[in-house]
Amino acid sequence: MALPITAGSRDSPPQRKEYYETPLGKIKVDKETSEALCKITLFQGPRNAELQEHSLEMQLPFLQVVIGEFLLVPLVVGELSVKDYAEAARELSPYLDANTILVASSDFTHYGSRFGYQPFKENQRSNLKRLDEGAINKIIAKDFQGFLNYVDETGATICGTRPIGIILKMLPAKAQSTLLDYYTSGDLTGDFSSSVSYASIAFSIP
């Protein structure tokens, strides 16, 4: 089972769907788990929140290639209080076992005037790396509150801050972290005046 957690909002119960479809085929939704979660107020939200959000769909082809067939529990995350993080972690934890992958889909820093975020205008590559590493280090350290504080203090435009926060809240002390990769779009285009950062971090429980 895979539970990708993405960004979005909540209001009323979503429409029920049997599967998601990508060019690689259909992915069956775990309706039993989804229905159980939808009975909890925190997990209720409008269908149109997901229609305007693409981060879930970005992960599905990768999961299809790596895993093959699996059951999907799609979650779209909106605004959360500290209490909401704790509740989300508590309600999701019983569904995690050795056959479950929990995925938080997120870009890292969106830098440039088009994103309304320019905390520096010189040495963009080195400053972006320093900014991103501050958040990455908090995540690797499984520092839930430290990560949220860092984003608030720096204004780092990490769009999946809340889904990442939920995972950090759920991780047991023995979970081990690994930074798999980090780069920016500027590394590919050579233009750091408008750049988006990307980091891949994996957690495993021995």
Structure explained in plain terms:
With 206 residues, the chain is of the alpha/beta class. The protein contains eight helices and eight strands. A hairpin with a 2-residue loop joins strand 2 and strand 3. Helix 4 (82-92) packs across helix 7 (161-170). The longest helix is centred in the middle third of the chain and has 17 residues, at 124-140. It starts with a strand and ends with a strand.
Short overview:
This protein is of the alpha/beta class and 206 residues long.
Assembly annotation: single chain
- Strand percentage, roughly? 15-25%
Side by side, the strands of the main sheet go 4-1-5
Q: Care to count the β-strands?
A: 8
Helix content: 25-40%
Mean pLDDT: 89
Figure out the total of helices.
Answer: 8
The profile of the biggest β sheet is: 3 strands, parallel
What is the secondary structure topology, with strand pairs?
Blueprint: E1 2-7, E2 19-22, E3 25-28, H1 31-38, H2 47-51, H3 55-67, E4 75-77, H4 82-92, E5 101-104, E6 110-111, H5 124-140, H6 144-154, H7 161-170, E7 176-184, H8 185-189, E8 195-204
Parallel strand pairs: 1-4, 1-5
Antiparallel strand pairs: 2-3, 6-8, 7-8
Helix pairs in contact: 4-7, 5-6, 6-7
List keywords for this structure.
single chain, 206 residues, alpha/beta, 3-stranded antiparallel beta sheet, 20% strand, globular
